[in-house]
Structures are given as structure tokens and as C-alpha cells.
Write a structure and sequence with these properties.
Elements (H helix, E strand, L loop, with lengths): L4 E8 L2 H10 L3 E6 L4 E6 L2 E7 L6 E5 L15 H10 L16 E6 L5 E6 L2
Parallel strand pairs: 1-4, 5-7
Antiparallel strand pairs: 1-5, 2-3, 3-4, 6-7
């Protein structure tokens, strides 16, 4: 199962303080809008998202159709197909992508320890 680019989405208390901290670790702002309380930062192929006030806990994020630099893959498995495969395997959904739609969509699941996993397709 190919899930696409991987990042950790961090629920931060103060986006400016967090940005400055991760810059000390060699991360640089890659995308986002700090005035909207979200930034995507990179250190090589490592990607983290900083999100202030958008969710309560950290989330593992996969982006079908993207490389880690947000460039489109030549081919990829659509998020709705991934969702169907997981449901057939007995994975419970927290949220679901609309099976009748196409293009951007997402779903959320949780691992056995309660960690949230977001599969978020932007294409």
C-alpha cells in the first residue's frame, strides 16, 4: 500500500516559538501561512507541520500523490481506493472520504494506541 509523502502534524501552542525552535534543528519554512496559524517545515526529506489551534493532538499525515517536496507523483493510489482497502481489512474509520467524489479528499483512522492518522490527498 503506497500512502504518499509522510509528515508529522504537530499541534503547537505558539507557532512562532515552535518555528524558532525547529529552525534551530535545521528546519526551514517550506509552505504555509503563519498568519493563519500553520506552517510546513522541511529539513532535507523530513517534513513537519506546525498547526496552532487547529487540532488537539499530533497527527501522522500521509499525502497520496505527492513526493515529500509536494510535487506530484506520476502515478498513485487514490485516497478512496486506500480507504476501501483499509475498510476491507477491518480498519475503522474516524472520518471518511466521499466514495462518489474525485480529486482532493481525506480520511482519518487511529492506530491501536489511539494515535490519529490522516490520509489527505490534495490532487
Amino acid at each position: 500500500m503506497e500512502l504518499g509523502a509522510f509528515s508529522v502534524s504537530l499541534a503547537v501552542k505558539d507557532i512562532e516559538v515552535s518555528k524558532l525552535f525547529y529552525e534551530k534543528l535545521g528546519f526551514t519554512v517550506f509552505m504555509g501561512d503563519q498568519s493563519q496559524n500553520w506552517l510546513i517545515m522541511k529539513n532535507g526529506y523530513r517534513v513537519i507541520g506546525l498547526f496552532q489551534g487547529m487540532f488537539d493532538k499530533n497527527i501522522l499525515t500521509f499525502n497520496p500523490g505527492w513526493y515529500s517536496d509536494a510535487q506530484k507523483l506520476d502515478s498513485f493510489t487514490d485516497v478512496r481506493d486506500l480507504q476501501r482497502q483499509l475498510k476491507e481489512s477491518g480498519v475503522d474509520m474516524i472520518t471518511e472520504a466521499d466514495e462518489s467524489s474525485s480529486g482532493p479528499a481525506s480520511f482519518m483512522i487511529a492506530d491501536p494506541d489511539g494515535n490519529t492518522i490522516l490520509v489527505d490527498q490534495h490532487l
